[in-house]
Amino acid sequence: MAAAVELRDLTKRFGDFVAVGGITLDVQAGEIFGFLGANGAGKSTTIRMMCGLLRPSGGSARVLGIDVAKDPEGVKRSIGYMSQRFSLYEDLTAQQNIRFFGGVYGLHGPEAREREQWAIEMTGLRGQEHRLTRELPGGWRQKLALACAVLHRPRVVFLDEPTSGVDPLSRRRFWALIDEMAASGVTVFVTTHYLDEAEYCHRLALIHAGRLAALGGVAELKQVFAGHAVLEVECPHPADALDTLSDAAWAREVAIFGTRLHVVVEDAERGAQQVQEALAATGNTPAQVARIVPSLEDVFIHHVEEAEAQKAAAARR
Amino acid sequence: MRTLWHVIVKELLQLRRDHKMLPLIFVAPVLQIVAFGYAVNTEVRDVPMVLVDQDRSPGSRDLVDRFVSSGYFTLVATEDTPRAIDPWLVSGRGHVALVIGPGYGAAREGGPQAGVQMIADGSDSSAATQALGYAAAIVNAADQERVRERVRLALAGGDVTPPGRIQLVPRVYYNADLKSRWFYVPAVLAMILMIMTMLLSAMAVVREKEIGTLEQLMVTPVAPWQLLVGKLAPFAAIGTLQVFLVTGVTTLWFGVPLRGSFLLLLGITQLFLLNTLGLGLLVSTLVRNQQQAMMAAAFLVMIPMIYLSGLIFPIENMPRVIQTVTYAIPLRYYSNVIRGIFLKGAGMETLWRESIVLALMGTGLLAIASLRFRKRLD
Ligand SMILES: Nc1ncnc2c1ncn2[C@@H]1O[C@H](COP(=O)(O)OP(=O)(O)OP(=O)(O)O)[C@@H](O)[C@H]1O
Ligand SMILES: [Mg+2]
């Protein structure tokens, strides 16, 4: 089966600035594909190229076999897109928004009515459909935007940070909807910078400064720590500890997570002892050093640091 | 077609929801035309006049009577010497002074030449010019009667002294009393229409750009023309309603005659609206946000257009180069059309040229604007 989305060396430059620097990946039909990256990493730019909104500066993007550079309108007909900014008409009611978007997607007659009912059910807006969209709580508004983006039953859906600014419970419900869609065979390409959300995705791409830093399933990505241990260190002065441990050759990676430090070492027991000694020597004796299961965030930081190191090495050469 | 309809319905729903916009659209034109109708009243009446009658003859008293009864002048003071006039003019209590030199009465009876002098405060030059014009007319009228009288006397007496002189009597057509209100009030219609429809359309696209819905619309199969026509059609309808409203106020309130066909006015208005909507849309595609759209529409397009259209300043008085530029201004043609239909009862046989120009310019502008509008972000 052909991939739903195929990116080959996809590149976007704004003047001299490279926003997306050659991304190659495939997304399979029915997959929930997560696109992770920090602010400004190039997530929205990539999505906009795939939706035919931006013309790629290089490489190619095919969606359902259609080349977005050659036939952007063809792509638009077969996809659903939810942009990063909330993009329904806030001065229209929920129902008026549903009808308008259904209309411009070419729905009419019984099908239009059926999809309208479906959208109201799916968003849980029954009884609220005549309220102005601007008066709806954030979680509902996002669900309504999703419903409006998929009224025409697209086979591929692009969601750009669909859950930003939404409370955790609503986020969970939103992801349940995404799961349902994927189960019915729709391919979902979703960007986020909430790492916890990535756990909902079948596969992930980590992108950093416009480049692919890692690609794979969650478990697969965590594999990078196979043969290593991640230690969590609690100490009085985490910032000082970061300096101390960064200089130590046996600490492969050190990063601050809130008030704690994560340190990657080769052997858990020996590493814990080394951390204890090194910090005690600077009067920063840790209260606790414990081995933890690496989180996606550790994976992410690992890849970002690796990418940075590669870039620095390339610059030196 | 169905898609177009959905866009129109959506625009109408949004307009109806906008509780501030609706009254503005219909109350503002009425307010503007009423304010304008009274404010631009440039007719000069009841000009305060100081009199210095050095003649004190029946003839001079007759002349003063003519001045006062004309309605254009009000006698505020009588002085003995011309030197006493200054304080009146300086203080502004008098705007003009009439000085009748000694011997005026005698001159009317056939004596030697005598002078009548009119002194006007030129700081308001147009009012002064008008006052002088009226004064000249009054003096001439008095003079003419004298000539006619003498001819009659001469004929009766068999004396064949040739009559005094022939005078050029200017006659103004169409707006015989030169009522400035008649001239200006219909023109307000052109301005209101332009301001309203152009601002609305300049905001239309950029507003969706700003709130982010345009990006969403760009991924739908809606065609650019459907989106643009759907957005503009309601504004054309609003403009048409305003023609009814403003024509009503103009004719019923201000008593300006509508001598030509109202249907023709409505028809050519549609052609004019192609221009204003096209220009608005063009602005909309060139700017980033609503403030920029406002500023660009007002200062780069509308105000220059009003100045150069002949609506306020006569085109004949402009330098040659500028006169040439005015041919590119749609408002110029439309103001001709409006004044023609209202005041002269002009029909298609004289307005066809304006209609063709408006139609061509309008479609051109709309075409350029829609070509600039792409369903892309870059
Ligand atoms: N039209 C544009 N012109 C110039 N630079 C742009 C343009 N659009 C985006 N950029 C730049 O490209 C980079 C990537 O932007 P993009 O919006 O794709 O990031 P993102 O990963 O979506 O970030 P965020 O999480 O903030 O949404 C940013 O540095 C941004 O400033
Ligand atoms: Mg983004």
Describe this structure in words.
The complex is a heterodimer of chains A (317) and B (378). With 317 residues, chain A is an alpha/beta fold. Chain A has 2 domains: 5-216, P-loop containing nucleotide triphosphate hydrolases (Rossmann fold, 3-Layer(aba) Sandwich); 222-316, Alpha-Beta Plaits (2-Layer Sandwich). Helix content of chain A is 38%, strand content 26%. Chain A is built from 11 helices and 14 strands. Chain A has helices spanning 43-50, 72-78, 94-104, 109-123, 138-149, 168-183, 195-198, 218-222, 238-246, 268-281, 296-316; strands at 5-14, 17-27, 32-37, 58-63, 66-67, 79-82, 156-160, 187-192, 203-208, 211-216, 229-234, 253-257, 260-265, 288-292. In chain A, α6 (168-183) links the parallel β7 and β8. The longest helix of chain A has 21 residues, at 296-316. Chain A is globular and about 75 Å long. The relative contact order of chain A is 0.12. With 378 residues, chain B is of the alpha/beta class. Chain B has 2 domains: 47-173, abc type-2 transporter like domain (abc type-2 transporter like fold, 3-Layer(aba) Sandwich), CATH 3.40.1710; 180-377, no CATH class. Chain B is built from 14 helices and 4 strands. In chain B, α3 (58-69) links the parallel β1 and β2 (73-79). In chain B, α2 runs antiparallel to α7, α2 crosses α9 (224-253) and α7 (180-211) runs antiparallel to α11 (290-308). The A-B interface holds A 48, 51-55, 72-73, 76-77, 79, 81-83, 85-92, 96, 99-101, 103-106, 108, 149 and B 2-3, 5-7, 9-10, 13-14, 17-18, 211-213, 215-222, 375-378. The complex binds adenosine-5'-triphosphate (ATP) and magnesium ion. Adenosine-5'-triphosphate (ATP) binds next to β2 and α1 of chain A. Magnesium ion (MG) binds next to α1 of chain A.
